[in-house]
UniProtKB/TrEMBL annotation:
One of its GO terms (molecular function) is Glc3Man9GlcNAc2 oligosaccharide glucosidase activity. Residues 29-415 form the Mannosylglycerate hydrolase MGH1-like glycoside hydrolase domain. Belongs to the glycosyl hydrolase 63 family. It comes from the Bacteria. Keywords: Glycosidase, Hydrolase. This is Mannosylglycerate hydrolase MGH1-like glycoside hydrolase domain-containing protein. GO terms for biological process: oligosaccharide metabolic process; protein N-linked glycosylation. InterPro entries: 6-hairpin_glycosidase_sf (IPR008928), 6hp_glycosidase-like_sf (IPR012341), Glycoside_hydrolase_63 (IPR004888), MGH1-like_GH (IPR054491). Pfam families: MGH1-like_GH.
């Protein structure tokens, strides 16, 4: 199976390559997405280190002057009707000027420095010849500075996201409470394009979309200003903050490689790790919970995001989190497939997007985090389960955590990329 699976995963990534970067999936997602590209680079580096470098360079080529890395970079040759909301909705040119690539104004979880460092390691000679890290390092620094400077709304030293799309886990039940305060835009005021490519029962609802549109339009209409009072939704998310901390570890390595001082990055990792544990860890539940900046309350939920701080080196509560991963709520030791939401919670839905289905990028993060903290046996179970599920389901976007049946679109890029990395 290994050689054939490797070959098929490679074909998926080659077919989804668009000359500068890779689309998450033909049809449903016809542009470049931020955290997708980072995961794609992790896999692509085993096929073509050059393309993996270019993938990240294309994304950072669309970075805004304020340092934000947009969650979508639009391909100008793709017709406007292909994806909603497209460039005409975001109007990024008002902020970045007409010569800049058209983008969204939101962000996604900051896994990029980790991907950049691993991409470098795949072929250091090529990377050095091309000046890959010396060019990327200042951009990565500006990206992290945007997050810790402009998005530190609370006084707790953590980064906030201002839209569910920024979490990468769009319709996670973790966002139900803060979203209930947002009045949905009526569905006849916009046209969803996703339903032309995927089953309605497996996607966010019209009400979800109505709220996403309301929040994004408000951000746009205030010139994408990062003022807390302007945002109806402001949440300190464990995944975003954990990936930033893990990326700071990678930044230390990158800094040493380019002749810069690694020390500030090591200090930043330490600071974020402490802020995460003090601010978001719930010892009783054995997981991290997001924090609602407006209400000042924790958003207690069974989101798998609460286990992802395992990617943070030196996490002092790693044993408790591994115990939760192995318990009834996630059953990682038995199935090896991490559900995106607590299996025992009445809100769990096996096939609806981020309300229960298994996603391969999260599987990769947990595999990586489990190994980092010495849980090598569980990590091996996760690895084998992800490979089998991707193989059986045709590199689907997500799978049922209990049966492994495939859902969402086929030939999804980060599913293939994760397979390539796990096989190598
Ligand atoms: C909105 C591209 C992206 C992923 C997200 C996933 C989904 C977009 C959508 O697809 O979100 O950004 O249209 O539903 O939730 O994690 O990056 O693959």
């Amino acid at each position: 199976m290994t050689a054939a699976l490797h070959r098929r995963a490679g074909h998926v990534l080659l077919a989804n390559w668009r000359g500068q970067s890779t689309v998450p999936a033909a049809g449903l997602y016809p542009h470049q997405w931020s955290w997708d590209s980072a995961f794609i680079a992790l896999g692509l580096r085993h096929l073509s280190p050059l393309r993996a470098q270019r993938e990240l360079e294309a994304l950072f080529g669309a970075q805004w002057p304020d340092g934000r890395v947009p969650h979508i970079v639009f391909d100008r040759i793709v017709p406007a009707v292909a994806y909603f909301p497209g460039p005409e909705f975001w109007r990024s040119e008002r902020e970045t000027g007409p010569r800049h690539p058209a983008t969204s104004g939101l962000i996604q979880p900051p896994v990029h420095a980790l991907a950049a460092w691993k991409t470098f390691l795949a072929d250091p000679g090529l990377a050095r010849t091309r000046g890959f890290l010396p060019r990327l390092y200042p951009r990565l620094r500006a990206w992290h500075a945007y997050l810790t400077g402009r998005r530190a709304f609370g006084s707790r030293g953590l980064v906030s996201i201002v839209h569910p799309w920024e979490s990468g886990m769009d319709n996670s039940p973790a966002w139900d409470v803060p979203l209930s305060r947002v009045r949905p835009v009526p569905p006849d005021r916009f046209t969803r394009r996703d339903l032309g490519h995927a089953r309605e029962a497996e996607r966010p609802t019209d009400d979800d979309y109505g709220r996403y549109v309301r929040l994004a339009a408000a951000y746009r209409d205030h010139g994408y200003a990062d003022e807390l009072s302007r945002h109806a939704f402001a949440v300190e998310d464990p995944l975003t903050n954990a990936l930033l901390a893990a990326s700071e570890q990678a930044m230390s390595e990158i800094a040493a490689e380019v002749g810069a001082d690694p020390e500030p990055h090591a200090a930043e990792l330490e600071r974020l790790r402490e802020a995460l544990v003090n601010g978001l860890f719930d010892g009783g539940d054995g997981v991290f919970h997001a924090h609602d900046v407006h209400s000042g309350l924790p958003l207690r939920s069974g989101s798998i995001a609460g286990l992802t701080p395992l990617v943070v080196p030196g996490l002092p509560v790693a044993d408790a989190v591994v115990k939760t991963a192995l318990g009834d709520r996630f059953r990682l030791g038995e199935t090896g497939l991490p559900p995106s939401f607590d299996l025992t919670d009445p809100l769990f839905e096996a096939h609806r997007y981020w309300r229960g289905a298994v996603w391969f990028n999260i599987g990769w993060l947990l595999w990586h985090g489990l190994r980092l903290h010495g849980a090598t046996e569980v990590a091996a179970t996760v690895r084998n389960a992800l490979l089998t599920a991707a193989d059986n389901a045709g590199f689907r976007e997500y799978v049922d955590p209990l049966t492994g049946s495939g859902h969402g679109v086929r030939d999804f890029s980060w599913t293939a990329a994760v397979v390539l990395d796990l096989l190598t």
